[in-house]
Design goal:
The protein folds into three domains: 180 residues, no CATH class; 156 residues, no CATH class; 193 residues, no CATH class. About 3% of the residues have low confidence. The radius of gyration is 27 Å and the shape is globular. The termini are far apart. The strands form four sheets. A five-stranded mixed β-sheet has the order 6-7-12-8-11. A four-stranded mixed β-sheet has the order 1-2-3-4. It is 52% helix and 12% strand. The protein is an alpha/beta fold.
């Protein structure tokens, strides 16, 4: 068994290194600075699972006079700082420098003229002054030696005493591999096969897989305190401090502890195995998948009490605990799916905003199966998951021959990998005609986001799968071929999702004109028309190039130029879909169709005639 684990680890080690090297190769320039920047991006994409636009925003601070920060971003509603070191750039001095830099940033204004550095450092100081935790990550694909680790521990201990709000994490290649393996259902290395004990009062078994127990609150608190954060690894909702529900739990513990059993729904734990002995249950690799808020609040409540205060509690409280064990033959992926399903079906107490419930959403899993079966693409629900697949599985994804011309500019082994978040953004811009939301409020496009029900609902699930595939392929084409991406100095830098929306507007208007139809939305157009266009590479490339021309004229319009001024991002996020500017865009599309009807669109008309036969 140990040999098998070593082999699997080595395989994943090689896959991770290959993925990093490939990303650096795609980045182009072969110098230490660009390698460091590209490695930083790889980490943000594959370990922290940021979207493409988030990575671009997070790394704006990098470069000269960056105060020792390569990236700044938010995760689980907390601010994160990252310093990355590629290979030999790693050193004990670099690790210690992060501690020095972070302690300086929270108190001093940096000496630099770079506005982005000043803005981000101000954000860090404000978070610190508000009493919030700041997570400081040092990430390298080198190895942190045992000696380096020993040297660092004393410094970290001193820092925790003087400044507990700064939370430092030092990750080397082994930690990176562990984070990637977790995406495939593995638990953290220091937690696998670990057994925890919990005292219980009354219990009964059900279905040969489940134990239902009545547990004293102080005993459950002891279990949570000893288990620590690893108990909550699978609960991607995590712990949301300050919510009304947590306050209610604390109030009941403080004022009506004997009523806790009546007022609280309890906790669900999934484990590999459990052993029930008289008044004690031993759990192997337990994970709290429901009741995370309850468990953490109970743990915190009891952990803050002194021995004297504990003895003053004159009444005993209890909590309901349900323990479910997985099948002995279950794979890591099957165990993960069970934990995910229980989390999805039983959690409803706190509305979480962010990136979390993607992996639990049934629609996402169904989309993954359909895109693989019908078109040969891998729909990557969790960034980095593709790395964990075996080589044969990776090589089985070859896209769809009729559409691969849209990816001809992509020079990557991940050419046929579709990241879930970007797919949903592209769908929102194209089919739902909301490029502003796709670009500026993508956090709303998650299964618990404000816009999710507008984007994915009963009607959406009946749509042809091409409505999710085609917009993303357009996104890749315009970024690679037409350069709608970072680095350019004009409107293209931020306008990829507006391009997708404009392209679909153009198709809608063309079909309405040539078919004498009155479709109002892109989703109303028969899928056969879209298929015909996308299978005709020459026609589709012409339409794509023409969309680019429309946008060039649009951004030269005097009213648009005045509104954009020097804030293109603000315009695309907040004003582009307002009636005035949406109308201007429609006018440029109409003018283009009328001016170029015979010269440019005869192929389009011929195609529609053929499709109608």
């Amino acid at each position: 068994m140990k040999n098998n684990k070593k082999i699997l680890y080595q395989v994943l080690h090689n896959e991770v290194n290959e993925s990093i090297n490939e990303y650096l190769k795609e980045g182009g320039q072969d110098n230490s600075v660009s390698k460091g920047q590209n490695f930083c991006e790889w980490v943000l994409f594959n370990v922290f699972e940021l979207r493409e636009d988030e990575v671009a925003e997070a790394t704006e601070i990098s470069g000269n006079f960056n105060s020792g920060i390569d990236a700044i971003f938010e995760m689980n509603n907390e601010l994160c700082i990252m310093q990355s070191k590629y290979k030999n750039a790693h050193s004990p001095e670099a690790m210690k420098a992060l501690l020095v830099d972070c302690n300086r940033i929270i108190s001093d204004i940096p000496e630099t003229e770079r506005s982005i550095v000043l803005e981000n450092c101000k954000k860090i100081r404000e978070s610190y002054q508000n009493g919030e935790n700041i997570n400081c990550f040092y990430v390298t694909n080198n190895e942190i030696s045992e000696w380096e680790d020993i040297q660092l521990k004393q410094t970290l201990k001193e820092n925790r005493i003087s400044n507990s709000q700064l939370k430092f994490e030092f990750w080397d290649i082994n930690k990176i591999i562990e984070q990637i393996s977790i995406k495939n259902g593995e638990l953290p290395k220091n937690f696998r096969d670990k057994t925890f004990k919990m005292n219980i009062e009354k219990s009964f078994d059900a279905y040969d897989t489940t134990l239902v127990a009545m547990v004293k609150l102080k005993d459950f608190a002891n279990f949570v305190i000893k288990g620590g954060n690893t108990l909550f690894h699978s609960n991607i909702r995590n712990y949301l401090k300050g919510t009304k529900i947590n306050k209610g739990i604390k109030s009941t513990l403080s004022e009506q502890i004997d009523k806790f059993w009546l007022y609280n729904n309890g906790v669900t734990i999934v484990c590999d195995t459990y052993e029930d002995r008289t008044n004690i249950i031993s759990l192997k690799s337990p994970q709290i998948v429901n009741g995370c808020q309850t468990a953490k609040t109970i743990g915190e409540f009891y952990n803050k009490l002194t021995s004297s205060e504990l003895s003053d509690i004159d009444k005993e409280g209890h909590v309901l605990v349900k323990v479910i064990r997985t099948r002995k033959s279950a794979t890591n992926e099957e165990k993960k799916e069970l934990r995910d399903n229980i989390t999805r079906y039983t959690n409803s107490q706190n509305a979480v905003k962010g990136l979390d419930f993607y992996a639990l959403d049934r629609f996402q899993r169904d989309l993954q199966r359909r895109l693989e079966k019908s078109f040969g693409f891998y729909y990557e629900i969790q960034r980095g998951a593709f790395i964990t697949l075996d080589v044969n599985k990776k090589n089985s994804f070859m896209g769809y021959s009729d559409y691969n011309y849209l990816l001809e500019g992509v020079n990557s082994k991940k050419k046929y990998v579709l990241p879930a978040k970007e797919v949903i953004q592209s769908f929102t811009a194209a089919i739902k005609q909301m490029p502003n939301v796709a670009y500026g409020r993508a956090n709303e496009l998650t299964p618990t986001g404000d816009r999710w029900k507008d984007i994915v609902n009963d009607e959406t699930e009946k749509m042809p799968i091409e409505h999710f595939l085609y917009p993303y392929l357009i996104l890749k084409y315009v970024k690679e071929k037409l350069k709608y991406r970072g680095g350019v100095k004009d409107f293209r830098k931020n306008s990829a999702f507006l391009f997708i929306a404009t392209y679909y507007k153009l198709i809608l208007k063309l079909i309405n004109k040539f078919q004498e139809a009155d479709y109002e939305k892109p989703e109303e157009i028969p899928i056969e028309y879209y298929r015909g266009i996308f299978q005709n590479s020459e026609l589709n490339k012409m339409l794509l190039n023409h969309t680019h021309d429309i946008l060039k004229y649009y951004f030269k319009d005097s009213a648009v130029k005045k509104s954009v001024a020097d804030n293109l991002r603000g315009f695309l996020m907040n004003r582009v879909t307002q009636a005035e500017y949406w109308h201007i865009l429609n006018e440029y599309i109409d003018d283009s169709i009328n001016e170029n009807e015979e010269e440019i669109y005869h192929d389009m008309r011929d195609l529609l005639i053929v499709l109608d036969k």
